[in-house]
Known about the structure:
Layout: H1 14-23, H2 28-37, H3 52-55, H4 66-77, H5 89-114, H6 122-130, E1 140-143, E2 151-152, H7 153-156, E3 168-173, E4 177-182, H8 195-200, H9 218-224, H10 226-232, H11 235-238, H12 241-247, E5 250-251, H13 255-259, H14 268-284
Antiparallel strand pairs: 1-3, 2-5, 3-4
Helix pairs in contact: 2-4, 2-5, 6-14
Amino acid sequence: MTKQTSNFIKIGDPRFIQDWQFEKSQDAQIVLRRMLDASVFQRGSDIRQISLEALFNGQLSPADPFWQQLAHLVQQAFPLGLFDQQLSSAEKVLAQRVHQFRYLIDSWLVSYVRSLSGQASDRQKLIDYLKTFPAAKERWSIGSPRLHEKELRPDLAGHTRFYLKKVNYKILINFHVEFILTEEGRFLTILSPEPGTVINGASFNFADGNDYHANQTTAWNHHHSRHFNLDIEPVVHYDPEFRLTLLKTYRAPDLKEFSRGCLLRPAIKTRSARLAKKFTRSVHEN
């Protein structure tokens, strides 16, 4: 994938797809490096300064098969995960670029859904988009939002339980593409200027499914969970500095806190599931 004379190639452009179909059978790390080098997302770039319109073709939708192909290429390129002691310095540099690229993907897909016609809310636009999926090939699902329910540590002080005034819920397409929505029906993206949104925003998944076991050790998950070593573990090693700084002041509920409720306040898991169920009914309504 070579740069065009006057500018960079947009990911998803016809020229890009032509090269992609030819090159994706080559060495996975080389293909990933060429793809990123041919785009406006250059090494050392601040992802907050990247123009999504200059990075992605406008027709690249959440359901495009390219995203699954990309995820599988990353799996091939990093069989032990994006952060592993056996990676060379050059491989770690590439792994960090690939990791941060996921946040640009998510922000682009949110932008794509928001650009759909009408003045509806984020939630309604996503519902309308999912209604276009052929019923027999429905590929979207509900995911666990536990790691997207982080709260400021000082705000948790003084509470006997993990306290959230409002909760979020997660919608997945082929597991790789995810959307995090608030109770008000607003998308959360990591490239938002709002701290709480930066912390709880969606993140593109390179794994094919959720095989992460929160009750197991980090070492166990590193060796047995692709979702962990491709999507969860890299965060503390490769996230942009602006987000790492914020992460120190927030924490997510553990499994017990996520599932524990009381008579007057149901569990975070229960409240989120209710929102997701209501969303699902809306998608299936005629």
